[in-house]
From TrEMBL:
Primary site of residence: cytoplasm
GO biological process: D-xylose metabolic process; UDP-D-xylose biosynthetic process
Catalytic activity: UDP-alpha-D-glucuronate + H(+) = UDP-alpha-D-xylose + CO2
Cofactor(s) annotated in UniProt: NAD(+)
InterPro entries to which the protein is assigned, alphabetical: Epimerase_deHydtase (IPR001509), NAD(P)-bd_dom_sf (IPR036291), UXS-like (IPR044516)
Domain NAD-dependent epimerase/dehydratase, first and last residues per copy: 3-234
Places the protein is found: Cytoplasm
Keywords for the protein's UniProt record, in alphabetical order: Cytoplasm, Decarboxylase, Lyase, NAD
Taxonomic source organism: Gossypium darwinii (Darwin's cotton)
GO molecular function: NAD+ binding; UDP-glucuronate decarboxylase activity
The protein's name: UDP-glucuronate decarboxylase
């Protein structure tokens, strides 16, 4: 089995590579442009005879021979995806078109990592896969939100028109080792501020919620989805829900009880509630890691 992982140098991608490389008969190819990923995340595999690392931006076609494609490439932190919004939407649309073209040529199965952001500032709680979302199509986050929604559309169009085997995972907030400490996501942001003895900046009103999944549990879900028969979309995440005030207090207690918590203005279109309904994942992907 030859497997391509786009975005394999990132948080989720590098842990996925670890899991795939543990299969003795798997050969893994990683394509990454290092816009947000790091080669250091893959250093344990560099030089391994079953591993290949390609510096490549998927907005350009990629010609490799593989059996499966895990398509993860895209900046996931608001700081990064808003920094170059045009590149973000190109990655989601042109990059996905290129990966689908590769899958079509090779008749390879392709898994696309979508996001809970497709639900936008949700009017349904918790969010089920059947919910169509409440997304601002011209907002500062839409390069990511709408880009992922368009990529899902492309996945299903290729599936219906060309019979491509597709899998779609809608990933909720994920944390774990190899997070970029300065990427602006709330878990790494609070931890970095506590370590640096800086105030933990909670965006107003502080009652907005998120649900956080450990990266290894998420990777288990991705591989089970790839090996299963369901096209998705399937929510992957932890239904445990925290307000940002609760998260800040937890980090304060664990890392630096002396640090202050301060309130700052929120960013536009920030979702007020985020909690996955994972009924479908439990029914179709088996029992999660304990």
């Amino acid at each position: 089995m030859r497997i391509l992982v786009t975005g394999g140098a990132g948080l989720i991608g590098s842990h996925l590579v670890d899991k795939l490389m543990e299969k003795e008969k798997s050969e893994v190819i990683v394509a990454d442009n290092y816009f947000t990923g790091s080669k250091d995340n893959l250093k344990k595999w560099i030089g391994h005879p079953r591993f290949e690392l390609i510096r490549h931006d998927i907005i350009r076609p990629l010609f490799v021979e593989v059996d499966q494609i895990y398509h993860l490439a895209c900046p996931a932190s608001p700081i990064f995806y808003k920094y170059n919004s045009v590149k973000t939407i190109k990655t989601n649309v042109m990059g996905t078109l290129n990966m689908l073209g590769l899958a079509k040529r090779l008749r390879a199965r392709i898994l696309f990592t979508s996001t809970s952001e497709v639900y936008g500032d949700s009017l349904e709680h918790p969010q089920k896969e059947t919910y169509w979302g409440n997304v601002n199509p011209i907002g500062v986050r839409s390069c990511y939100d709408e880009g992922k929604r368009m990529a899902e559309t492309l996945m299903f169009d290729y599936h219906r028109q060309y019979g491509i085997e597709i899998r779609i995972a809608r990933i909720f907030n994920t944390y774990g080792p190899r997070m970029n400490i300065d990427d602006g996501r709330v878990v790494s942001n609070f931890i970095a501020q506590a370590i640096r003895n800086e105030p933990l900046t909670v965006q107003l009103p502080g009652t907005q919620t998120r649900s956080f999944c450990y990266v290894l549990d998420l990777v288990d879900g991705l591989t089970q989805l790839m090996e299963g028969t369901d096209t998705g979309p399937i929510n992957l995440g932890n239904p445990g829900e925290f307000t940002m005030n609760e998260l800040a207090k937890a980090v304060q207690e664990l890392i630096n009880p002396e640090v202050q918590i301060s309130e700052v203005e929120n960013t536009p279109d920030d979702p007020r509630q985020r909690k996955p309904d994972i009924t479908k994942a439990k029914e179709r992907l088996g029992v999660p890691r304990t």
